[in-house]
Specification:
By secondary structure, the protein is an alpha/beta fold. The chain contains six helices and nine strands; from the N terminus they run βαβαβαβαβαβββαβ. It comes from Marinobacterium maritimum.
């Protein structure tokens, strides 16, 4: 059964960040959806099971490399999509920590390199993807451009502080999506631009913080993927520019 019943079929989907924990689950869910004709998957590195997927879905799936630190690489995303008219674009890439830096507990640990990298991957890269991909989206049918955001990007909901770079980058992402939605509405009246919060998902991104998360609030990647697809399936242009959680609740700015 399709999770994407509100789209005109067939669906041509673009997935950025296909090798991450949620990205791999989104990829599998899209490939299993009977409404999806083609998935153009992009990532810094191919998932470990890429060869298996490519052999299992030879007509439906194509893998491509992308470097989210370089606009030239982001712009090149459009090349394999020539004539595809994608009506679903999902940006599932993101960064919370690295081998050398963890989320800041205090302003004392703010470091410019880490901050700039978080802003690049979590905010600027999705905005540049919108810049280069929205012009390929059909103007005469329902379409969605969505990026994975986070509840901690909400300014009004911030009661704990900390995580300066990640919070700032997700707040910036939400603003960039809002700006994109306003501009796109003039020429793409059927397009929804939205942020999606998948909840806390059992992936390498959140792994260092699992001990703080109640068991019933730590979701599997498959559950998170299905949840955000159900949410975006129900969004209309009236919802464009806003951010929604995995359960469909709007996250305040």
């Amino acid at each position: 059964m399709s999770l994407l019943t509100s789209f005109e079929q067939p669906i041509n989907a673009v997935l950025i960040g296909a090798s991450g924990g949620i990205g791999q689950a989104l990829l599998q869910t899209l490939l299993d959806d009977p409404s999806v004709a083609r998935v153009y998957a992009f990532s810094r590195s191919s998932p470990q099971h890429a060869a298996h997927l490519a052999s299992r879905y030879p007509q439906q799936l194509s893998f491509h490399r992308i470097d989210l630190n370089e606009e030239s690489s982001i712009a090149a995303v459009a090349e394999p999509l020539s004539g595809a008219r994608p009506n679903l674009v999902l940006v599932a890439s993101g960064q919370l920590h690295s081998e050398t830096a963890m989320p800041e507990k205090s302003w004392r640990t703010l470091a410019s390199d880490h901050f700039h990298q978080q802003m690049q991957i979590n905010a600027l890269a999705p905005a540049l993807l919108a810049k280069h991909l929205i012009p390929l989206i059909p103007k005469d049918q329902r379409a969605v451009f969505a990026a994975l955001s986070a509840r901690v990007g909400s300014i009004s909901d911030n009661r704990l502080g900390g995580w300066y770079s990640y919070r700032a980058s997700k707040a910036a992402l939400n603003m960039l999506l809002r700006c994109t939605a306003i501009e796109a509405q003039r020429r793409w009246p059927h397009l929804v631009v939205a942020g999606l919060h998948p909840g806390t998902v059992n992936t390498s991104l959140s792994q260092p913080f699992h001990s703080r998360v109640p068991t019933d609030k730590l979701f599997t990647p498959a559950f998170a993927a299905a949840s955000v697809l159900r949410v975006l399936n129900g969004l209309t242009p009236d919802h464009s520019g806003r951010t929604f959680a995995w359960d469909g609740q709007e996250i305040p700015a």
